[in-house]
Amino acid sequence: MDRTIPYKIYLSEEELPRAWYNVKAHMKRQHPPFLDPKTGKPCPREALERVFCSECVDQELNETDERIAIPEEILSFYRMFRPSPLVRAYFLERMLDTPAEIYYKFEGNNTSGSHKLNSAAAQAYYAKKQGLAGVTTETGAGQWGTALAMAAAFFGLKLDVFMVKVSYEQKPFRKEVMRTYGANVIPSPSDTTEAGRRILKAFPGTGGSLGCAIAEAVETAQNRESCRYVLGSVLDHVLLHQSVIGLEAKAALEKYGVDVDMVIGCMGGGSNFGGLIAPFMGEKLMGRNDIEFVGVEPASCPSLTRGKYAYDYCDSAQMTPLAKMYTLGCGFMPSPTHSGGLRYHGMSPVISQLYADGYLRAVAVEQKRVFDAAVAFARCEGILPAPESAHAICAAMDEALACKRTGKKKRILFGLTGTGYFDMTAYKQYNDGTMSDSSPTEEELERGFASIPRVPAAD
Amino acid sequence: MDRTIPYKIYLSEEELPRAWYNVKAHMKRQHPPFLDPKTGKPCPREALERVFCSECVDQELNETDERIAIPEEILSFYRMFRPSPLVRAYFLERMLDTPAEIYYKFEGNNTSGSHKLNSAAAQAYYAKKQGLAGVTTETGAGQWGTALAMAAAFFGLKLDVFMVKVSYEQKPFRKEVMRTYGANVIPSPSDTTEAGRRILKAFPGTGGSLGCAIAEAVETAQNRESCRYVLGSVLDHVLLHQSVIGLEAKAALEKYGVDVDMVIGCMGGGSNFGGLIAPFMGEKLMGRNDIEFVGVEPASCPSLTRGKYAYDYCDSAQMTPLAKMYTLGCGFMPSPTHSGGLRYHGMSPVISQLYADGYLRAVAVEQKRVFDAAVAFARCEGILPAPESAHAICAAMDEALACKRTGKKKRILFGLTGTGYFDMTAYKQYNDGTMSDSSPTEEELERGFASIPRVPAAD
């Protein structure tokens, strides 16, 4: 085995990025602004500030600064779990017997188990800096809720997490981690909000949905003094925070003189993929590289590969402003699958715009193939991946096997966003042979598209 | 915050130790040999080789070589998860407002979640090198079984894990991780062995015990062609493999010119503590330092602080040779506690001898204080610790608070052996306020001591 590059490239703390990378500063076309669903007009800044922390709104709207400094307090928090390793997948290469070089940036070495902590740290800090007493959020699979619980504990913020009831019941250990970090975890729908009570009345005994949990979290934040709502993906400022992934990966590769040909990431709301590709994409937009960017989504929730580029609600409860994005329709219901973190009807507006402009491609993969890849990876690279992350592994393995057929020695980087330690129910299904694949039928897609709102014409 | 030392000190791969450290080479007195319980005579080498891999027996009996080379194949496996970080606990120091400097060596950044992988990798490799088809083992809490499953998958060995039935049922996710790595996990007692059938007949419906699981694993290995039994703690060769922890910690500290005053570790069978202290202790034995070594055990299973130094069986089924060790008696039943990995009646013969000779001290801590420490640590240092590891955190915090009172600026190193992601049932008890403390009464201790065998006089 040629070992000119170490298995794991750790940057030193001095090499930690001190600014996030704002890819929008180099985009030829910016994504259109959020619209007020009632008027069809762009949302005023003040409307966003009633929901989100002010500095996050600043970042959300910033289209000009390539670098946005990371405050010292957030850097200090990052040092608990960053820099994360860039791993040369020698064992995976050997198993696949491929001429390709495979690298992965591993974000799972922290108690939240994923990259979510990068934005949680930032958003909790800004809330504290703004003098807020607390924040609210929703969580489905639980990685975001856990990450925010850790950050809120660290910065001394009160946190209420509305957890989709079916997850709350099926993932008691996720809930317990959040409680251990001091968060108040409420199964959603709950009777603590108007939105929750309305749903409970209309659908007694429902297991809840992300859309309902978002509505409850937003309502709670708005009804409280000194409280804001925070979101773990989709939005531009979340992608900005996640750019630390790509910046570290790029610095580590440059340290060893490696130019990658391809960057692969899984996509749910798009924050991990957006963060991983940001600095590489920025250079591509400036004509400095010709990297191929590949986003991987589940076949069960194929927003880029089968969705429409349209203005849609960010939540299924139709409470949020409208965002221009690839969407399956806010009313789309993906068939139950365990990659909870990828079950989102839409896609980050930044990623959507880049996709519309032809700067990246997308592939959709079926669940059983994803778990085949996950298990093969676990056995040779030692890390049991999150089902979400395994979508990227699957696509990277496909590319490496294609290299084996063509003899090309491509250099592939993929994002390994997290670990699957709290996803063993899904692994059990796989091990028991009871896991199934599913893609929406054309009819199901049409039903989803029917929920995309008609945007009123602005005067 | 003074930051002359980074938060995390990672060694480079070139700095990875290439030999284990055999502390026995410097011990003034070796621990007495294993005895055959029937004859009272030392166990012949051949008897050990019928149970364990030959190279492990070599290492078990080696009292002379300070360094034993780590084979390249094991080094290669180690690179998947080593070097592990040495962390300067700045956040913990700040929270405690102590003049002490606190460092911890964190072994939890791997899918097994603990240091156990260090010895699993070695033992699986030696089994493969010996040409064996498979190995057997037992697991209680599950960390060892998971580690061995990972190593067996990597080296292509068949693995049967006898898992204490009550754990098998209460920790379905641990079992699922092992299955994902291809291990065959059997609830013990089972009807696949004579030992298991005997127990099932005598105690229908029993939840099993570690002693019974050991008996089943040993019997299965001995009845199979090309199979041996492997053990995850207690034995000298396991401590040898774990010396990689101490060697890395020492190298990282030396890199920054830090001399520690105290090394603290939790103790169950003693392998993590023995490995952490090995190279520091070796120098103490040579008169080169005056470090204080502190082993921390649960008050519910206090083998060093309240046990007897005597020959005893290593298992409660009384099948193994006799080892000279501090013991509560092989028949001692600790009250149910969730630090499953520390519920062992005896203590590593090496640690026992060092304790008997006055080279280390031991403290016992109650469970609720341990969880107080675990939660405080999680919230400021970001890592949710395993309950076992939290015993060391608790003692380190006590020492740091003592420094606050005395004004002494001690340098404290402790071993953070693993993460608690599969221990959330215990955290739930703590969060719910239903956790209780327990120490054995004098009467319970006496009942345990009564199970210590009388050793027949050798001729």
Number of helices of chain A: 18
Side-by-side strand order of the widest sheet of chain A: 1-4-5-15-10-11-14
- Largest sheet data of chain A: 7 strands, mixed
Measured as a percent range, the helix fraction of chain A is: 40-55%
Mean pLDDT score of chain A, rounded? 94
Low-confidence stretches of chain A: none
Structure description:
Two copies of one chain form a homodimer. Chain A has helices at 45-51, 54-61, 72-78, 90-96, 116-129, 143-155, 165-170, 172-180, 194-202, 210-223, 236-255, 271-285, 303-306, 349-356, 367-381, 387-406, 424-432, 442-449, and strands spanning 8-9, 19-21, 67-69, 86-88, 101-106, 134-139, 158-164, 184-188, 227-229, 262-266, 292-298, 308-313, 322-327, 361-365, 411-416. Chain A is α/β, with parallel strands linked by helices. The first copy, chain A, has a domain at 9-18 and 69-113 and 242-458: Rossmann fold (3-Layer(aba) Sandwich). In chain A, strands 1-4-5-15-10-11-14 form a seven-stranded mixed β-sheet, with helices on both faces. Chain A has a four-stranded parallel β-sheet with strand order 8-7-6-9, with helices on both faces. A two-stranded antiparallel ribbon of chain A has the order 2-3. In chain A, helix 12 (271-285) links the parallel strand 10 and strand 11 (292-298). The radius of gyration of chain A is 21 Å and the shape is globular. The mean pLDDT of chain A is 94. Chain A binds chain B through residues 1, 6-8, 10, 12-13, 76, 79-81, 91, 109-111, 113, 150, 153-154, 172-173, 176-177, 179-182, 375, 378-384, 419, 421-422, 424-425, 427-428, 430-431, and chain B through 1, 6-8, 10, 12-13, 76, 79-81, 91, 109-111, 113, 150, 153-154, 172-173, 176-177, 179-182, 375, 378-384, 419, 421-422, 424-425, 427-428, 430-431.
